[in-house]
Amino acid sequence: MRRALRSRTLVVGLGLTLLTLFGVIAGPWITPFSPTEMDFIAVLTPPDMTHWLGTDSFGRDVLSRVLSGGRVSLFISLCGVGIGAVLGVAAGMTAAWRGGMFEVALMAACDLLFAFPSFVLALFMMVVLGFGLHNIIIAVALAYLPIFARLARNLTRTLMHEPFVQAARLMGQGGGRILLREILPNIFPTLLVQASVGLAFGIVMEAGLSFLGLGVQPPMPSLGVILADGREYFTRGPWVLTMTGLVVSVALLGLNLLGDALRDLTDPRLRQAAGP
Amino acid sequence: MSRLLEVRNLRVTAGPLAVVRGIDIDLDEGETLGLIGESGSGKTVACLSLLRLLPDGLRTEADVLIYKDRDIASLPEREFRPLRGRELAMVFQDPVGSFNPAKRIGWHLRTAIARAGHDGPWRERALELLDGVGIPQPAAVLERYPHQLSGGMLQRALIAMIVALKPSLIVADEPTTNLDNIVEEQILALFRDLQKRLAAGFIFITHDIGVAAQIADRIAVMYAGQIVETGPTADILAAPRHPYTRGLIATANALAARAETLAEIPGQLPALDALPPGCGFAPRCAQARPACAQPQPMRPVGPGHAMRCLLDA
Amino acid sequence: MRDPLLSIEDLVVEFRDPHRPGGVLRAVDGVSLTIAPGEILGLVGESGSGKTTLGKTILRLYEPREGRLRLKGLDITHLDEAGLRPHRRAMQMVFQDPLSSFNPRHTVGEALAVPLRLHRLCAPSDLAARVARSLEEVGLRPDFADRYPHQMSGGQLQRAAIGRALTLSPELIVADEAVSKLDVSVRAQILNLLRAVQARTGLAMVFITHDLHVARFLCHRIAVMHFGKLLEIGPTEDVFQHPQHDYTRALLGTLHAREARARTPS
């Protein structure tokens, strides 16, 4: 029963995620409208057969903008989480392995960053770095770096005294080799789960920053920019905000379900319980 | 002595896999059965199924399941639950799991004493019980949490609770396996004391034939989900008949005799999904013959002594 | 007496006490002993006696707090990981739990090929044949090279672990409770294998065990540990027949009590 439920989580999560990916990649071919082309005859039309999600105050097709903005948001999230993950995992694994002052200093730095909610941290980064696509990626990466550093450090610490790692040391394998060959393959599934959940929060983070006007700048569409636009004339055209929000929710739901399912699949205890 | 437990053709299956493949158990009051087997032989699963403690997904079936003249196979869970703990007790290999980590030892004993229907102040009874199982400074131990006691001490505290409940059937699953030699000796001595004090039936599960030799009246040897040999302890130790039992005892004897090389049983235990059609031990048996590919029934080979093998038939 | 292969002088190993902040636990407390080439030394004691810590410190998997470790006269106590690497070959280990001593993501063949490749002990073209030979030496079919650890039984994996330790032709193997997690009917196979390997290669072995029967069967000399201290050490039969220390007598007492009761069941 639990297995069936879990696999349903996986199927739904994977389905929604693939649907989102397909939408944002194939966006230009799905809708006939340009995300930036204005049409002042069709300003704020409610959803109909032509404009499935309606149009905004400039007559731009909301669906086209959401798909195109989703691509920008996803790109930012992917780059940010990716950079944060690679640097954080490298730092965390090295810290666990080397120990000593390096580990103490890194973990103290992580604790300091953890003292702020990730979003506040990213907000602060944007104020320091200034607006723009690159900086928002850096902000997301910096928000995720401590999360991955701590996760990788803790996972590495639990594995580094395992007999198979000690055996590798006795065989004469060096530290870098052991981390890459022996430990990384074993902690990778857990990191992947964190990354898939992180991807969802990266999108939220971008949307939040852009919504506040600190992130992606109009006219380039991103989910945050569209939501910010929609808020201004919510009473006249509520579908812009609600429809965009709905699409974002579906995408986040998909990523989170996928993350949950992946975590269950990689949890050896659950795997064991499912066995005979 | 009266018959406490009668089990015929007990089977436990996990989907298509047969974990326990039809075992019979007879146990009298005051008798101790040593159930010997290796990991995966089904010895623990068989006993857990008797107490209805199996996880979901494992199905139990038996032709006969009689405890104290009552058919407990058909008993609804509501009526079975009061039996468990009060009449049927289980001691696990890891005593930690039998305690609530958030509660002190005193709370556990008080619960057990209350459940036993004891009137009057529980504290004195608890101190008496702890003292009776050789726990020093029992008053201090009552205030301790389970994680503050060593494995040996916890196992003692658990035995004290069992003494309080005075169950009629006690299943002990490798209760000394995780303990050091000296502590193991002490716990085994406690069990022998328990045998004298309670008129209960014991099923003592172990992989160590040396431990069974010290505590059991009768021994049943399990292999691949079946009992392959059963008989009085002295007979089994002195004259094992089944090739598997012989192998186990030969290894133990060779170790004790410091032989140049040990008598070894070749090969590995069969996997559950690849059990041979007939005798489970045949692939490892030096005396296997074509007829071993047929399922073997238990054959009597002496008074109270039977085995599942063609030899000497 | 021949020059010792390994000599241990006043070794102290400490760990941080998880229950007391700032406190330390002395796992090994001033142990001195020597291991001669080709001998099997049994390290016996109960859990918490420090025997496994001592075994792993010999291999420099743990750092000693005080004392000296000499491998064939060379002081290896404070060599760093890089300085240690050339000497690692000489000392290998067989662990208690064979499953966790293999990386679950690598096949057994890969695990055996790593040391060969790392130390350039054989040409890449001969690697598969060499791994197959290593497996056969410990009684496994060559096709086990393609299996993952979870596809093998405990006994088979422990054979592979012994094979892996032997690939580097070590002079010393530390075997930590190498049979205690194995099924009873498989233990004898592994004990016989260890004895045969030792006789064939002439390597020295430190055999850590709590099982006195096993120690007596396999070991030339016995060292008894209790609370981190070495209580006594001597030829196996001397220790078993004339134990010097009260604790050793108590430990051996359990053995005799068992044998006596097993002979006369109630």
UniProtKB/TrEMBL annotation, chain A:
Tell me the Gene Ontology biological-process terms attached to this UniProt entry. Answer: transmembrane transport
**Keywords per UniProt:** Cell membrane, Membrane, Transmembrane, Transmembrane helix, Transport
Record's superkingdom?
A: Bacteria
Transmembrane portions of the chain: 74-97, 104-127, 133-152, 187-212, 239-259
Give residue ranges for domain ABC transmembrane type-1.
70-259
Choose one Gene Ontology CC annotation of this protein and give it.
Answer: plasma membrane
Q: What species was this sequence derived from? A: Humitalea rosea
Write down the Pfam families for this protein, in alphabetical order: BPD_transp_1, OppC_N
User: What's the family?
Assistant: Belongs to the binding-protein-dependent transport system permease family.
Q: Does the keyword Cell membrane apply?
A: yes
Q: What is its main location?
A: membrane
> What membrane topology does the annotation report for this chain?
Multi-pass membrane protein
Q: What is this protein called?
A: Peptide/nickel transport system permease protein
Location of this chain's protein in the cell: Cell membrane
Q: Known InterPro entries for this protein?
A: BP-dependent_transpt_permease (IPR050366), MetI-like (IPR000515), MetI-like_sf (IPR035906), OppC_N (IPR025966)
TrEMBL record, chain B:
Report the source organism: Humitalea rosea
What's one GO-annotated cellular component?
A: plasma membrane
Q: List the Gene3D superfamilies hit by this protein, alphabetically.
A: P-loop containing nucleotide triphosphate hydrolases
Residue runs in coiled coils: none
Q: Which family does it belong to?
A: Belongs to the ABC transporter superfamily.
User: How is it placed in the membrane, per its record?
Assistant: Peripheral membrane protein
Extract the InterPro entries matched here: AAA+_ATPase, ABC_Ni/Peptide_Import, ABC_transporter-like_ATP-bd, ABC_transporter-like_CS, Oligopep_ABC_C, P-loop_NTPase
What is the protein name for this chain? Peptide/nickel transport system ATP-binding protein/oligopeptide transport system ATP-binding protein
Q: Name one GO biological process term.
A: transmembrane transport
Q: Where in the cell is it found?
A: Cell inner membrane
Domain of life (superkingdom): Bacteria
What PROSITE patterns does the record point to? ABC_TRANSPORTER_1, ABC_TRANSPORTER_2
Lineage, broadest ranks: Bacteria, Pseudomonadati, Pseudomonadota, Alphaproteobacteria, Acetobacterales
What are the GO MF terms of this UniProt record? Answer: ATP binding; ATP hydrolysis activity
Which Pfam families does the annotation name? ABC_tran (PF00005), oligo_HPY (PF08352)
UniProtKB/TrEMBL annotation, chain C:
Q: Which domain of life is it from?
A: Bacteria
Q: What are the transmembrane regions?
A: none
Transferase: present as a keyword of the record? no
Which Gene3D superfamilies does the record cross-reference, listed alphabetically? P-loop containing nucleotide triphosphate hydrolases
Return one Gene Ontology term, BP aspect.
Answer: transmembrane transport
Q: Name one GO molecular function term.
A: ATP binding
Q: Where is the ABC transporter domain?
A: 13-252
List keywords of the entry alphabetically.
Answer: ATP-binding, Nucleotide-binding, Transport
Protein known as = Peptide/nickel transport system ATP-binding protein/oligopeptide transport system ATP-binding protein
Organism of origin is Humitalea rosea
- Specify the taxonomic lineage: Bacteria, Pseudomonadati, Pseudomonadota, Alphaproteobacteria, Acetobacterales
